[in-house]
Amino acid sequence: MSSTDAHFDSDWLALRERADATARSRHFQQRLAEHLTAGGTVLEFAGGTGSLLRALVPRLTGEISWRLLDHDVALLQRARDTLFAWASAAGCRARHVGPALELKTPDATLRITFEQHDLTRLPTTFYGDAIVASAWCDLVSADWIENFAQWCRRWRVPMVYLAMTVDGSIDFSPSDELDEAVSSAFQAHMQKDKGFGPAIGGDGHRLLSRALNECGYRIASESTPWQLDGMGNRLLAEWVCGVAAAAAEQETAHASGIAEHWLPLRLQEAAAGRLRVRVGHFDLLALRRPDDP
Question: Which residue from 83, 171, 201, 248 could staple onto 190, CB 3.0 to 4.6 Å apart?
Fold first, then answer.
């Protein structure tokens, strides 16, 4: 799923794309699109293979500059290639303009740049209309979040849309006696350092909301859980394997039980279509208060 330096395999990102697109707040996506009705500049942190942008393109209007930042050069190239290949099926025209990619829809023209950036550092400047990120903010530290909120205030960022941050809740059906131990160990493992300091993991909602509110933003949030089930669901099987590996590494006292009982049982149930898992996430929308200096 991810390693300690927060590198994500592009195949994992592709596997989770549909679940993310299904779960994300449509209301918040529409608010972002309305905010950009006349065009503007968007900066996306940890853009990965461009899944959030692909979800938003049909809603966008006007001339938009989209800066997609990631530390991983291979993911940036995958994003460029995937967006170009995706364009015709999505009713877009695509062409390469130097290092940028131009997408045209009936309602919008997007100029997308793919920028390698050390995400432990915030950009030195930003003049634009929105900051976005998806499935990433739970990896950073509390200090990074505080610095990010202050940075948004300093550069008077009008809107911040942070999608698909885990909230720490996992519900299994049917239940098993090891579920609580596995979930607790997995949550603890998620809070290991991913290169930014101790990760916020399931504390994301509280820390993001507080930091941005204190820096002059009105906060709205929506629950956006994954609902994983279905016979042969590859995402469910991969997610279960990743959870088992992380939990066993974190809590060695349960490692044998996880390997010999919990994981085989859950994979068998998943293959038969009997396992249902709700993985809690939330979307956050922050709007700069007009009275903030």
Answer: 201
Span 20-43, mean pLDDT?
A: 95
Helices (H), 191-222: 204-214
| 8 Å CB contact between 123 and 106 | no
CA atoms within 13 A of residue 254's CA, in its CB half-sphere: 23
Reduced to 3 states, what is the DSSP secondary structure of residue 141? strand
Six-digit token string for 153: 């205030």
Cβ atoms of residues 175 and 230 within 8 Å: no
> Is 189 within 8 Å of 133 (Cβ atoms)?
no
Strands (DSSP E) contained in the chain are: 40-44, 62-70, 93-97, 100-104, 108-116, 130-134, 159-173, 217-223, 226-228, 276-288
Put simply, whether the predicted model's pTM sits higher than 0.90 gets the answer yes
Using the structure block, give the residue that is written with the tokens 């933003």. 217
- The tokens describing 212, both together, are 């941005």
- For residue 141, name the pLDDT band (cuts at 50, 70, 90): very high
Residue 60 backbone zone (phi > 0: left; psi -120 to 50: alpha; other: beta): beta
CB atoms within 10 A of CB 279: 19
What Å distances lie between residue 134 and 75, 111, 139, CA to CA?
Answer: 15, 20, 11
Please tell me the distance from the alpha carbon of residue 35 to that of residue 221, in angstroms, as a whole number: 17
- Calculate ∠ Cα 260-266-269, nearest 5°: 130
Six-digit token string for 90: 């999505």
C-alpha separations of 152 from 44, 147, 252, 287 in Å:
13, 9, 41, 11
Distance CA 293, CA 289 (A): 9
The secondary structure element, H or E, covering residue 246 is helix 234-250
- State the greatest distance between any 2 C-alpha atoms of the chain, in Å, as a whole number: 58
DSSP secondary structure, 265-281, as one string: HHHHHHHHT--EEEEEE
